[in-house]
Amino acid sequence: MAVDWTQLPPEIIEIISRKVTIYSDYLHFQAVCHTWKSSIPKTPNHLPPQLPWLLLPQSQSNQSSYRGFFDLSTKKFHFLNLPEASHRKKHCGSSHGWLIILDDSPSILVINPLTRRKIHLPAISSFPNVVSFDYANVGREYLLVKPQGERYTASLRQMRDGFIKKLVMSSSPLEKKGDFFVAMAILCSTGDLAYCRNGDERWNIIENVHSFSEDVIYFNGLFYAVNKAGQIAVCDVSGDSPKVSIIETPQQSGGDMQYLVSSGDELLLVTRYLDLDVEFDDFIYTTMRFEVFKLDLNGPRWERVRSLGDLMLFIGENSSLALPASGFSGCMGDCIYYTDDYSATNYDFHVGEHDMGIFRIWDGSIEPLPCYPRNSYSRLQRPPPLWISPNPC
User: Fold this and answer.
1) Which pTM does this prediction carry?
2) For site-directed labelling of 108, which of 148, 160, 317, 325 has its Cα 20 to 30 A away?
């Protein structure tokens, strides 16, 4: 006797839907029939972190409002209406599925590409080292002050492209209405860390951590920032004034960049090694290898990790992410999926290739991402590709 699955009780359908962990599968679940669609929430709030999509750059000639995203699992492209992220804009990070965008204004826009929900963080002009802002002072709209007290000016474009290195958030800003969240920014010009909480009108500088500007993540209720030597500053910004403690590990030497990644209750350090080449007086950087370490607080010291097992890491301008490969089709464990996030010089040079790919830890080899065949030379486009996790909330 055939079973009519469309006649399942709504409460059973909802229970089954909560077993679905992939967003695309949830959409397919909704599409089975009207009964199933009406029995479950339109927006799934139970989903774990999703496999990141790769936000692709937009060519200068492309005036479309749509941006392309590449899905590693299905090897397919998705095109979303996202005029806020045109090639004239700069993104300075992605966090919890939200994209942070700067343009030729003091505005800092945070947008969810799936839902198109938006929030605005306090403006660039509200950072403590920005003395004043005046649109009428063309080409010198910003007046800033250096830590030593010297004042200087900067244009709209200079501030857009060179003021904020990276911005991460403690949680999805609209996860629940009224939820507490914090945004943390690394400043290019000084290497300072600055933060704001939801509802703040200005940014606040965290004193005495200006060298901890390689990367920052939110981990176990606190922000962790790393310096070039692999030492960690732990920042608690939940109170009236920030509290900072330093984890002084033996110095990590030889690497060019450091990234922090949280995996369960472990904190990982990823060291990136770059090779430098000169082309027509331009400096072009290429990733040669990565090394991974985990924090041993008994030292404290960084302990070398020779294998990630089923784990895969996603690093770049995004808030770094660790996921199990077995939970997603078409992905490999013991790998680092990386994008280029370190030098605007690469994009001032007109012909070359994006420094991005898949680093296999077990043999140290690098293979191209499926959407970017290695050695396929083309005109580089800005902003560079960026990992962003689909977040329907």
Assistant:
1) 0.90
2) 148
